[in-house]
Amino acid sequence: MFNEKEYQKQYREKNREILSVKAKQRWQINREKYLEQKRKHYQENKKEILKKNKTYREQNKEKINKQREEYRQQPEVKKHKSKYMKQWRKKNIKYLHDYMGKWNKDNKQYKSKYNKEYGKKHPELNIKRKDYFKQYRLSNREKENQKQSRYRKTEKGKINMAKTKAKRKRELGFKLIIPNILDEPVDYHHIDNVHVVPIPRDLHELYNEKTVEEHRENLKPIIEQLYDTKF
């Protein structure tokens, strides 16, 4: 008995290239007509189409992700994507800078948590990153030294240097409880083993007692008077 479906299937397989060329030709000739039909069909059945697509994605999530990953790994796709992204970043550098700056500021905790978890899952990337920056610093020593020198002169740099010194050399915490409002050289004084306040450097050096306890006790009333508060 003649099976039309089977015959059509075999015919398509044998004539795949010819049928493909003809289909492309029909598309080029009737492109606008086909697109208009597609737009009209979508607008008339938008809710149903979106619902159907959502259901399909939910039911075939693993299959779709696998297909996407296989597609992305194709050499020609990687090459095209890399070229496209370079061109796009070049054209939209200001937008990227503004957007990522705002996103990073609004998502500090999420970004920090994500980076830590990603680093644990991919320790080899941390090694590569460390090697890269080590090599970069060696190759750009003068530039990096100038950059560090400028950073240390900023308020943030001074605080971070004091924090590092407190943690590494003295095994103290560093929680700044009052921002620096003084228009003169300052030191960051520990009122206890954790909490820190900025005070004038000459004042800090003046009360350089033999013990830490005496140093803190003698400075305490002066600092409380300076900031009009009790510690």
Structure report:
Among the domains are: 87-139, no CATH class; 156-227, no CATH class. The chain is 77% helix and 6% strand. The protein has helices at residues 4-14, 16-29, 31-44, 46-59, 61-72, 75-91, 93-106, 108-121, 123-139, 141-153, 155-169, 201-206, 212-227; strands at residues 175-176, 186-190, 195-200. Strands 1-3-2 form a three-stranded mixed sheet. Helix 8 packs across helix 9. It is elongated. The mean pLDDT is 84.
For the sheet with most strands, the description reads: 3 strands, mixed
Spatial order of the strands forming the largest sheet: 1-3-2
The share of residues in helices is over 70%
Number of strands: 3
Helix and strand sequence: HHHHHHHHHHHEEEHH
Distance between the termini: 99 Å
Mean pLDDT: 84
Round the Cα radius of gyration to an integer and report it.
Answer: 33 Å
What structural category arises from helix and sheet content? mainly alpha
Write out key terms for the chains shown.
single chain; 231 residues; mainly alpha; three-stranded mixed β-sheet; 13 helices; 3 strands
Helix and strand topology:
Elements: H1 4-14, H2 16-29, H3 31-44, H4 46-59, H5 61-72, H6 75-91, H7 93-106, H8 108-121, H9 123-139, H10 141-153, H11 155-169, E1 175-176, E2 186-190, E3 195-200, H12 201-206, H13 212-227
Parallel strand pairs: 1-3
Antiparallel strand pairs: 2-3
Helix pairs in contact: 8-9
